[in-house]
Amino acid sequence: MLGFRLKIIEGQMRIFNKNKNKNSISLVLLFVFLCAVANPAFSQTEKEKDIEKLLDVSGILSQLIYMQDTLMNSMSMMISGSFPKVPDEFWKEFNQLIGEKEMGELVSRIIPVYNNHMSHETVKKLIEMFETPFWEEWKKKMPEISREAGVIGSQWGKDISQSPAFNKKMDELIKKYDLEKINKKK
């Protein structure tokens, strides 16, 4: 694809050099073309721009950053479990593995989901709603609420899975369906 784009640019340059009397028009057209080729976001639709704005004003972008933190925390626990001795320099580099570029890729993957499920008019109305002062408090508090609720949910899952009553029910269910027998290695 890049080779194809370069051939088009080379062709544009040949045309530009042959028609020096049309210098300014060709230069402007070449500039517009190069911007479109070099920056795919240039062709982003108004609706897609509004969806990106909606992700920001609704606080969803903050939630995506929370997802990033959750992923990195999970990965760091796996690393710590496998490698008890890790130098501080490793963690400094580790914490930079997911940056703006990667988060931008996540947003670019999410935009089509909104694009498929919402009309442009709905997106605009949601932006309007989320830009009200009422939602400002929600946006500020939602990441912390999600973190705290996530910790509570994790603890709940741990408590349930470690409870004798749950484990007794699980054992009974395994026996009822004879899972040990049907999964016995031969």
Q: Mind explaining what this structure looks like?
A:
The radius of gyration is 27 Å and the shape is extended. By secondary structure, it is mainly alpha-helical. Mean pLDDT is 79; it is low at 1-42. Helix 3 packs across helix 6, helix 3 (46-57) packs parallel to helix 7 and helix 4 (60-82) runs parallel beside helix 8 (133-162). It folds into 2 domains: 2-43; 46-152, no CATH class. The longest helix is centred in the C-terminal third of the chain and has 30 residues, at 133-162. The chain starts with a helix and ends with a helix. The protein has helices at residues 2-18, 23-38, 46-57, 60-82, 88-94, 100-117, 120-130, 133-162, 164-176, 179-182. Helix content is 81%, strand content 0%.
What's this entry about, in short?
With 186 residues, the protein is mainly alpha-helical. The protein folds into two domains: 42 residues; 107 residues, no CATH class.
Q: Order of SSEs, N→C? A: HHHHHHHHHH
User: Number of helical runs?
Assistant: 10
Stretches with pLDDT under 50, minimum 5 residues:
1-42
The count of DSSP E runs of length 2 or more, i.e. the number of strands, is 0
Radius of gyration: 27 Å
Question: Termini distance?
Answer: 53 Å
**Mean pLDDT over the full residue set:** 79
The portion of residues forming beta strands comes to under 5%
Into how many domains do the coordinates divide?
2
Helix content, binned percent: over 70%
Structural class: mainly alpha
* Overall geometric form: extended
Biggest sheet record: none
